[in-house]
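Input.
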Amino acid sequence: MALARQAAPGRVSRLLSRRSMFEVLLHKGPISRADLAKVTGLSKQTTSEVIESFEQQGIVRPVGRTSGNIGRTAVLYELSPEAGHALGVDVGATNLRVAIADISSKVRCEAVEPTHPQGGLRVLDQIERLASRLARDMGTHLRRVRSITIATPGVVNPKTGAIELAPNISGLNQIDVIGLLSDRLGSPVRIENDVNLALLGEIWHGCAQGFANVALISLGTGIGLGLYVNGSLVRGAHGAAGEIGYLPFPGNSNMPEASSQGCLEYEVAAGGILRRYKAAGGSPDADVPSLFELMERGNELATAAITETARLAALTAAMVIATIDPKLLILGGSIGGRPEFAGRVAQQLSLVCSRSIEIRPSALSNRATITGALAIALSRLHEDLFGITDLPGAMALPAPATAAGARTHPGPAG
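Output.
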C-alpha cells in the first residue's frame, strides 16, 4: 500500500480511527459516543475528537437521545444525508436509469426512461438532464454529487474515452464519453461494464451474497458475461473480459451483420430468438415478451424458439463453467433473468455439462446494474472522505435502502 506507507504513521493511525468510526455509523447508527467507543475499541477521548471533527465537516448529525436507560441520557449520532451523494447511471440499449444515493447508502431519488434512439451525444444529454433533475428534486445541485459511476455495455478505450464493442447503442465509439460526462456532471466519471456491475449488484444485495466465485450471463438485447473469481472482479488486460457476444458461432461467422453485432449475440440474444420464431412461420409483429406469453399459452412455435435459445445459452454456460469453475451461475437480463427461461437453461445444461452447478435467475432483475453502479460510487465516496484511498481492506456497504419520500420518475425520452 504505497500511499499508506508514504503518509506519516500518526496520520495513518488517525485516518484508520476515523474510518473505523465511520463504518460503525454506517452500519449501526444512530449510536451514542459511548457505544461507538465500545464497538470500535477506541478511547472515549479519541471517539469524542472524531465525532466533533465529523460534526464540523457535516459528516454526522445529532438525532435525539437515548431512552429507557437508568441515569443520564446520551446524544445519538447518525451520518448526515447531506454529507455526500453518489450518482449511478445504467445506460442500457433499451432503458436508461439514473439514481442518487446519500452517504448512508439510501437511494434518495431515481428516474428511468427509454434510451435515446439516436445514441451518441443525445444519450449524454439525456444523462445530464436526468441527473440534474434528480439533484434539483433533492434540493441540491448536481455539482455537489461527489462520486459518479456509469454502467455501459462494451469497453472504454483508455486513450480516447470512447466506448467500444457496444453495437446496440450507436455513436458512443465516436466521442470522448468519459471527458464529456465529467465536464457536464462536474465530477470525475468512472465507467464500468454493465454486466460486471450487475454481478456486483447481485453480490452486494442480490442472490450472490457470500459467494467468492460467481459468473453472471446477462441475456437480453445483447449478451455479456461478468466474472467474480476468488473474491475479485475479472476485467482482463483491456477491460474486455466477458465480451462473449463476439465469440465465433458456426454458420454465421462470414455474415457481415453477425460479425458486426457479435456472432454469438446474433444467435442467442433477442434478435436471434425473434428470427428463429419468424423463420418458422411465427407472426412478423411479435416481440420477445409476446413470445413468452405465447409459450405460456402452449404455442408450439414460440416454445420451440425459446427452447432452442435456452439450448444455445446452456452451451455458452458450459464453456464458462469449464473455464472458471464458478460455485454459482446467475442468469440475468430481460430474457436470461426470467425464471421460466433459467429453468430451461438448467435442464439443457444438465445434458452437456458433467458437473452439477447451482443456477439462479437474477434476484434484482432490471435493478441489478444500477445497484452495482451505486455500490462502486458509494465505495469511492466513502474512501475519498479519508484522504488516503489505499487503506487496508475494503469498506463494507450496508444493504441499499430507499429513503422515505424518495422520488421515482418514469418518463419519455427527450
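The mean pLDDT is 88.
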